[in-house]
Amino acid sequence: MAWLRLLFLIFLARPLARFLTGADVVRREKLPTKGPAIVVANHNSHIDTLLMLALFSPQALMRVRPAAAADYFLADPVVGWFSRNIIGIVPVERGKAGQGVDVLAPAREALARGDILLIFPEGTRGAAGEDLAPLKSGVARLVAAAPETPVIPVWIQGAGRVLAKGEHVPVPLTCCALVGDPIRWGGDRTAFMAELKAALEALKAEAPPLRWADAKDV
Q1: Segment 138-149 mean pLDDT
Q2: Is residue 178 a contact partner of residue 27, using CB atoms and an 8 Å limit?
Q3: What are 82-85's contacts with CB under 8 Å, separation 24+?
Q4: What is the pTM of this model?
Q5: Burial call 22-55: b when 16+ CB within 10 Å, e when fewer
Q6: How far apart are CA 59 and CA 112, in angstroms?
Q7: In 3D, which of 29, 64, 24 has the Cα closest to residue 176?
Q8: What is the DSSP string of 71-88?
Q9: What is the rounded distance in angstroms from the CA atom of residue 156 to the CA atom of residue 42?
Q10: Which of 1, 10, 14, 118 is deepest in the core (most CB within 10 A)?
Q11: What average pLDDT does the segment 118-136 reach?
């Protein structure tokens, strides 16, 4: 199954992501080439996952595992099979949080295997705008249990215009991904989340103006 996933990602997903987004990347060299590592990005579109998978080298790509909502991606058997085996998602049972279920267990197991975990800490897709929603602290809990794991922030600029939440037909427009310096666990969850949010906001401030943007978005 691994070979099928690699073929799909390299020969279909990557060209499609580049066609739809342009996949302009700033500081690609800061992306991890091996795990365990966590890559954290803002989330405005289903295109985000496709775009992120297109950024990694073929050697690293097979270790990249997007964390995804189990209630959304595993609800349909066919979509669930594709999500697990081809996209390679790590399912998160977000609806069972607070019910005594360790919803982060699959993510911890992925890190223990040496995978590169892709997390969108806003928890769900935001509006088509570029505002950052409040971050959920699951990433801090993961890195607290594996403090040697680097957390690399990425700001995705413009994907919400390519395929906004609620839309079904993507519109090719140039996007940009900016990669920041790794963040290390310092022992305090609140301080870690504040540092992560500040890093994402700094990358957002650095992002180039959107092409074809409405005047109100500039």
Answers
A1: 95
A2: yes
A3: 85/1, 85/4, 85/5
A4: 0.88
A5: bbebbeeebbbeebbbbbbbbbbbbbbbbbbbbb
A6: 19
A7: 24
A8: HHHSSSHHHHHHIIIII-
A9: 6
A10: 118
A11: 80
